[in-house]
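ok so dumb question maybe but i'm new to this and my supervisor (M.) told me to 'just get the structure for Leucine-rich repeat protein kinase family protein' and walked off. so i did the thing. is this what she meant?? sequence i used:
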Amino acid sequence: MSRFPIHSTFAVENTISFNHFCFGHSPCPVCPQPLAEKFINLGLVDKYIRYSSALQYLFGKSELANTRRGPPVTFSYTARIPDAIGFCIRTAGKMTDIAKEAAKMNGHDYNNHEQQQHSRFAGSPASDFEFRPSSKENGKSLKANRSKSPGAFIERLSSFARGKYRSSLSERPSQSRNFEERPRRDLQRDLQKCRDNAETRLDLSSSDEVHRVNNKQFVPFQIVSIPSSIRDLVQLTELFLYKNKLTVLPNEIGNLVNLKKLGLSENGLTSLPDSLSALTQLETLDLRHNKLCELPSVIYQISSLETLWLRYNRIVSVGNEIGRLKRLKMIDLRENKIRELPSTIGQIKSLVVCLLSYNHLKAIPEEIGNCSELTQLDLQHNYLVSLPQSMGNLQNLVRLGIRYNKLRHLPPGLAFCHKLEEFIVESNQLEALPEGMLTSLPNLKTINLSRNELTAFPSGGPQQFASSVSINLEHNAIAKIPFGIFSKATGLTKLNLKENALTSMPLDMGGWLAMTELNLSTNQLRVLPDDIDKLVNLEVLVLSNNMLKKLPSQIGSLKKLRELDLEENELDAIPNEIG
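this is what came out, is it supposed to look like this??
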């Protein structure tokens, strides 16, 4: 139990006086006891020491990293607990334990508040392959409701201290009461204006931004239906309806026979009208973030399509009719529920980019090899156990994404994909690569074989790494680095051999002259070569979780070294040369 009283005023107003930034011993507003002493009694000293680096980043105060014997800091603004928790979540996630303690003391439901904040600020995970349609929507910068930069954060804290910010969860009305809907858009007027001015581009997209007018906040107005008068805009070549609440499209949209770009992402569409087949000049169709459970059959009839975006839907299958889209150059089917691709995909000889990551695919049809113009093929995060031999025909392939599957072997034909610049097969079940495969790929800059079941370096000798800049072999079972394996890798700057079974380093390690980052953690290393000082460009050296008993004094000659991790070793001493 804490030794200081929880005063009634303290409890009723749900406030805790943290007095941030004041490094004296300020008393509590409701009793003469120093606030720092309260923190000690609450058992929060260790937490503040542990998270001192986060606090230093936020507040720029090195004095926050104090010893355990004295008070860590006192604080200089009075904040209501819910808002303090919110700030911790949004700007200093490492401090949430402290927020939990404070919330618990004052009877607040921290977890519920955390979920609310996370839903507001969390983003979607990024993919290795990131392609975006070239519409106006993508030129807009996404603005957060509040800046999260350290400077802006400190300014808000100062506002707290001056009493300019006093809101709390209990005082905030629900969003429906706090925000008003922006005055309804006069769609008929917009359409009439577009017709009168003979405009060829119409953007009726909504946005995520909250607008403020005369101290009132307005959520953006979203369109729920399109007037039938849209049929009169036959001159349109581009129509964008992003981020609305459309569930259906009117049949009259088929009258827009000159349309070349149609943007419908982030709506609630479950189907498309058959009249879209009349859009014989349509080249780009964007249907990302809708509720399509299948590819609408009308899409197969739009033979003019060149770019088709279908990411983030609920599509479970692709029909054989996909082969009719002879002009298609790019198709994005990422993050759906597709289990199988039809063999007719091979009839789309014009296909350049095919994105299929985050689906339920277990196999790829052999006919994919007929798409000889492919430069980018994304198959990440599926359930593939093998790849077709015909992939060797994809000799224009520059990027191949096959990480996070269940591949046990790779087709030897991949060695004919001479233009590959990245070879990323992370998180599969590979025990070896086909003989000399990497040697046949002379343009490889990035090689990632991490999280497989390799027991040795790929066969192929030094030549296979001649063009490499970054090599990642983390989390395998490699016991030895062959002598001279990197002798031709003159541009190699990053090497990750973390979590293997290495017991020693090769004697030619000093020849890795371009190396800037070297990760050898979690192996069984007992000694390092003396010529490690030859790695004059080394900036990061990670040696944690090994069996090192001593370090060569030459390590002190690495003038560019800025990070040296020696945790969890058996070191008796650190060389004086490290300084």
